[in-house]
């Protein structure tokens, strides 16, 4: 871990983990010396805590005083932190490393490599335990709305299967979302829509959580990519995607296939991709029609090389907030009618 100095001479570490809160009004990031919380618009530090041993994971419950922490060293324990009291008010211990934590106002979810544990947030009593396929990335999503509690995680039969627990309806569904293992999941605020991506990273799919119906198939690009984040807008009209290709894509989920679409620039196929497709004519017949028929991104924003970013929709209409691991913050706007290149409205460094 590279350590830098703040202006006052105190130790400052680079970002280890970063995530938005449930309404994307804030984001929190952890370092080897503690954690920080910033409001997204305007960008402003609202909380700084230095903790012995550092923090590996930090998750918020909206803008409340309650946070979920995993230490930088003790990775098998989830700490429930009350910042009003500046102390731990509860702990959950597990036999293996906690890969991810998800929070609602009424629940805390701890994701292990082969299990997902759901506990009540008020008293930490266990509510449910789910067996999963290998999940080293800690892939999991929960809906934040109080009216609908939906959990999405890997199933048990294959790496590309999604298990949906609709707790509010007492229903469990299994969706074969991808052939390759899952890389990222996202749920809409109301839990109605599920977005999925695999480690292949070329296709993002949208499903109806009520019955598992596939609603959209969206193509991020032609070549493999590591998907860092997926985000659905509050009204479920838009989907944002960030990846290691350093382009943030926004997809239109409501524009009819029969409406006029803005002219788009198809991504370039590398020589290796072209030769791979051409090597087998039957493969061309099977893959190329799907490639051409896929829904491509509506708007795009290019980040500097090697950027690792997460994305969410901003409070202002037709804006996205992009947070990068190097401490960069972008607020960008897209034209909801024309699409194309997004306009950078703000840039800042928060570390």
UniProtKB/TrEMBL annotation:
<dbReference type="Pfam" id="PF21032">
    <property type="entry name" value="PROPPIN"/>
</dbReference>
<dbReference type="GO" id="GO:0044804">
    <property type="term" value="P:nucleophagy"/>
</dbReference>
<dbReference type="GO" id="GO:0005829">
    <property type="term" value="C:cytosol"/>
</dbReference>
<dbReference type="GO" id="GO:0030674">
    <property type="term" value="F:protein-macromolecule adaptor activity"/>
</dbReference>
<dbReference type="InterPro" id="IPR001680">
    <property type="entry name" value="WD40_rpt"/>
</dbReference>
<dbReference type="InterPro" id="IPR036322">
    <property type="entry name" value="WD40_repeat_dom_sf"/>
</dbReference>
<protein>
    <recommendedName>
        <fullName>Anaphase-promoting complex subunit 4 WD40 domain-containing protein</fullName>
    </recommendedName>
</protein>
<dbReference type="GO" id="GO:0061723">
    <property type="term" value="P:glycophagy"/>
</dbReference>
<dbReference type="InterPro" id="IPR015943">
    <property type="entry name" value="WD40/YVTN_repeat-like_dom_sf"/>
</dbReference>
<dbReference type="GO" id="GO:0034045">
    <property type="term" value="C:phagophore assembly site membrane"/>
</dbReference>
<dbReference type="GO" id="GO:0080025">
    <property type="term" value="F:phosphatidylinositol-3,5-bisphosphate binding"/>
</dbReference>
<dbReference type="GO" id="GO:0034497">
    <property type="term" value="P:protein localization to phagophore assembly site"/>
</dbReference>
<dbReference type="GO" id="GO:0032266">
    <property type="term" value="F:phosphatidylinositol-3-phosphate binding"/>
</dbReference>
<keyword id="KW-0677">Repeat</keyword>
<comment type="similarity">
    <text>Belongs to the WD repeat PROPPIN family.</text>
</comment>
<keyword id="KW-0853">WD repeat</keyword>
<dbReference type="GO" id="GO:0000422">
    <property type="term" value="P:autophagy of mitochondrion"/>
</dbReference>
<dbReference type="InterPro" id="IPR048720">
    <property type="entry name" value="PROPPIN"/>
</dbReference>
<dbReference type="GO" id="GO:0000425">
    <property type="term" value="P:pexophagy"/>
</dbReference>
């Amino acid at each position: 871990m590279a350590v830098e100095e703040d202006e006052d001479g105190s130790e400052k570490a680079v970002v280890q983990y970063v995530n938005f809160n449930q309404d994307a009004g804030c984001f929190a990031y952890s370092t080897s010396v503690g954690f920080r919380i910033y409001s997204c618009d305007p960008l402003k530090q609202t909380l700084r805590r230095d903790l012995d041993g550092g923090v590996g994971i930090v998750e918020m419950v909206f803008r409340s005083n309650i946070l979920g922490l995993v230490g930088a060293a003790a990775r098998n324990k989830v700490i429930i932190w009350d910042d009003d009291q500046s102390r731990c008010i509860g702990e959950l211990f597990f036999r293996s490393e906690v890969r991810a934590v998800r929070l609602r106002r009424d629940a805390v979810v701890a994701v292990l490599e082969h299990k997902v544990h759901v506990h009540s947030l008020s008293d930490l009593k266990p509510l449910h335990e789910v067996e999963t396929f290998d999940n080293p990335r800690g892939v999991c999503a929960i809906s934040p709305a109080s009216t609908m509690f939906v959990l999405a995680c890997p199933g048990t039969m294959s790496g590309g299967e999604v298990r949906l627990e609709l707790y509010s309806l007492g229903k469990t569904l299994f969706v074969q979302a991808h052939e390759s293992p899952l890389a990222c999941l996202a749920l809409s605020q109301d839990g109605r829509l599920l977005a999925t991506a695999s480690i292949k990273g070329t296709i993002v799919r949208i499903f109806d959580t009520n019955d598992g119906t596939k609603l959209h198939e969206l193509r991020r690009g032609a070549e493999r990519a590591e998907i860092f984040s997926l985000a659905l807008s509050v009204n479920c009209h838009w989907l944002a995607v960030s990846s290691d290709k350093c382009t943030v894509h926004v997809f239109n989920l409501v524009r009819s296939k029969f409406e006029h679409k803005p002219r788009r620039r198809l991504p370039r196929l590398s020589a290796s991709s072209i030769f791979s497709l051409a090597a087998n004519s039957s493969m061309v017949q099977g893959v190329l029609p799907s490639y051409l028929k896929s829904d491509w991104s509506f708007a795009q924003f290019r980040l500097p090389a090697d950027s690792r970013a997460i994305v969410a929709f901003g409070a202002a209409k037709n804006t996205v907030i992009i947070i990068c691991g190097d401490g960069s913050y972008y607020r960008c706007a897209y034209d909801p009618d024309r699409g194309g290149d997004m306009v950078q409205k703000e840039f800042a460094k928060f570390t």
